[in-house]
Design goal:
The protein is an alpha/beta fold. The protein is built from seven helices and seven strands.
Length: 237
């Protein structure tokens, strides 16, 4: 397998937080939330490998995950257009771009938006560190209808980052999180497009480097008769 290997008939598919050798040893619970960490650089990686080699594990995981209604996997991606160095950006039902009310942050948003549009990937903007109406007006003027919610400066989050875990998230920011979840819930899962993107990026990577690296034609890993989603789980029973 390489990082882009798509699932097919006979593949090991995963259910979210299932009792398996992927989730059981690698999930930690932090304040009631299940957390998986991609991994840090090892000594042998320094000066040799980029972090995309670690992100390949995330891509493989999401390719083989079958999630259902009311189940959520939140992935904290690399910032900006660097996310397009792999097909990982196609693995999500919704991508939320965190944009601050600055020209620099807006320029990164526009770059990401334009790349994502080429593949039909939906994006929405969450304004961050908004301190008043001027900031909000700036974001509205720059991103338009893509802005679905915003966060204000949070003393609670700052306290958490400093190890002072007291208090509660501000009501406004809590409502923003509710809006983000609502946006995800309102978007139906398109398993056909999800699988097709996986196949397309696998074939790109096979031609670009993976065939040469493995000495095999990795296009043969594509199963044209495989149909991803809950039905694939049923077929395995």
């Amino acid at each position: 397998m390489v990082k882009t290997t798509p699932p097919g008939r006979g593949s090991r598919l995963l259910r979210l937080l299932g009792d398996d050798e992927v989730h059981t040893p690698h999930v930690q619970e932090v304040d009631g939330v299940a957390l998986m960490v991609t991994g840090a650089f090892e000594e042998s990686d320094l000066g040799v490998a980029c972090y995309h080699s670690k992100l390949g594990a995330v891509e493989l995981y999401l390719n083989h995950l079958v999630d259902g209604p009311g189940e959520y996997v939140v992935v904290d991606m690399t910032a900006g257009a660097d996310a397009f160095a792999s097909g990982l950006f196609t693995r999500f039902d919704m991508t939320f771009l965190v944009v601050e009310p600055t020209r620099k942050s807006v320029s990164v948003y526009r770059q990401y938006r334009d790349h994502a549009a080429e593949f039909g990937i939906p994006v929405a903007v969450v304004g961050n560190k908004v301190t008043g109406e001027d900031d909000l007006d700036f974001l509205r003027g720059q991103v338009g209808d893509d802005l679905i919610a915003h966060c204000v400066q949070s003393s609670y989050v700052r306290a958490q980052e400093q190890g002072r875990g007291h208090g509660e998230l501000e009501a406004h920011n809590a409502r923003t999180l509710d809006r983000l979840r609502g946006a995800v819930d309102a978007r139906p899962k398109d398993w056909t497009a999800f699988q097709q993107h996986a196949v397309d990026f696998h074939l790109r990577n096979a031609a670009a480097w993976a065939n040469g690296a493995t000495g095999q034609d990795l296009a043969t890993q594509v199963d044209p008769d495989f149909r991803h989603g809950p039905a694939a789980l049923t077929a395995l029973v």
